[in-house]
């Protein structure tokens, strides 16, 4: 586990007491799975009923990876010495030394996990907690009026560059100008910021429903971004094409990238849209994402330290400042608890 020695380290590895998307649900089947996320190596597994659990992938006895152990329902028996660790972090049995002081001790880091919309989410608590607060997903992922597809990938580089990219509607006019859904609209724009209940919208002034015209950032227990791109008639039935994204640090130079591609359709139109998406549109959307990836992966790690920003960048400046303030506040709280 990475030592949190500054707000920068905290933010680079993911804010505490916040939900993060970890992986698609199908990554975790009938065997323990070890994944590096949020500055930690974590082990995920399911019991016979399919319920999901998560611990730090570190046996409290000698530090062996629990992911190499044996599943016992809501427990894992470490493969190194057989020490059994329950999903809440309590050591329930030390077979080599029954009754030793390690038994009954909450010695492992445990994490609350849930599955929604085809993805696994983890509450990145600063310490073990018995209950985790809930989080809220945007309308596109909870309403029956929408159909959505999860698109998951991993990009080399800091996850914050992915956030910056989505908080930058103007790049769509240039980088994605050949896309069937982003070929219209002015190449010149002025932007404004509008507050919402849980965050803010960064939007072009005087242009709406033409191109990639706005981005919303929100914190509802989970940090997410949302945007809409109008579709031509060739895009099939339904309203604008909506994208909901959330991004998670895997390591210093690797990011987990989650995009749900959504459309407001129901009845026969939903089936038509789903068929059209899978057979014609999905490849085009991945091509657009590849354009983003190819730019972000070759940016220098310190590129954001040598910028000359202008009016189009006020949204990402505001979000960077807000996240930095959250990290500073959390770091002071953590430092106070350990003082």
TrEMBL record:
Keywords: 2Fe-2S, Dioxygenase, Iron, Iron-sulfur, Metal-binding, Oxidoreductase
Superkingdom of this protein's organism: Bacteria
Molecular function terms from GO: 2 iron, 2 sulfur cluster binding; dioxygenase activity; metal ion binding
Domain spans labelled Rieske: 19-122
Keyword Oxidoreductase tagged: yes
PANTHER family xref list: 3-KETOSTEROID-9-ALPHA-MONOOXYGENASE, OXYGENASE COMPONENT, IRON-SULFUR DOMAIN CONTAINING PROTEIN
Name of the protein: Phenylpropionate dioxygenase-like ring-hydroxylating dioxygenase large terminal subunit
Organism: Pigmentiphaga kullae
């Amino acid at each position: 586990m990475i030592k949190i020695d500054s707000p920068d380290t905290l933010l680079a590895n993911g804010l505490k007491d916040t939900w993060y998307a970890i992986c698609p649900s199908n990554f975790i089947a009938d065997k323990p799975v070890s994944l590096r996320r949020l500055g930690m190596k974590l082990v995920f597994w399911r019991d016979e009923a399919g319920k999901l659990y998560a611990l730090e992938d570190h046996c409290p006895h000698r530090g062996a990876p629990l992911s190499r152990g044996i599943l016992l329902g809501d427990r894992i028996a470490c493969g190194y010495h057989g020490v059994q660790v329950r999903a809440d972090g309590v050591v329930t049995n030390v077979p080599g030394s029954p009754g030793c002081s390690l038994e009954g001790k909450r010695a492992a880091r445990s994490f609350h996990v849930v599955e929604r919309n085809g993805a696994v989410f983890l509450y990145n608590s600063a310490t073990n907690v018995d209950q985790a607060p809930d989080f809220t997903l945007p309308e596109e992922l909870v309403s029956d009026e929408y159909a959505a597809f999860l698109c998951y990938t991993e990009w080399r580089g800091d996850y914050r560059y992915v956030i910056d990219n989505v908080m930058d509607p103007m790049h769509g006019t240039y980088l994605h100008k050949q896309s069937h859904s982003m070929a219209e609209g002015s190449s010149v724009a002025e932007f404004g910021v509008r507050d919402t209940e849980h965050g803010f919208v960064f939007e072009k002034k005087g242009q709406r429903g033409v191109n990639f015209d706005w981005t919303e950032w929100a914190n509802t227990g989970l940090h997410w971004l949302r945007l809409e791109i109008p579709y031509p008639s060739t895009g099939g039935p339904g309203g604008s094409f909506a994208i909901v994204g959330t991004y998670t640090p895997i390591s210093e130079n690797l990011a987990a990238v989650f995009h749900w591609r959504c459309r407001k359709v129901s009845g026969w139109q939903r089936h038509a849209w789903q068929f059209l998406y899978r057979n014609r549109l999905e490849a085009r959307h991945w091509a657009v994402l590849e354009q983003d990836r190819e730019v972000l992966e070759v940016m220098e790690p310190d590129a954001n330290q040598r910028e000359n920003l202008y009016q189009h960048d006020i949204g990402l400046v505001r979000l960077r400042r807000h996240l930095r303030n959250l990290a500073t506040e959390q770091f002071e709280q953590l430092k106070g608890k350990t003082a």
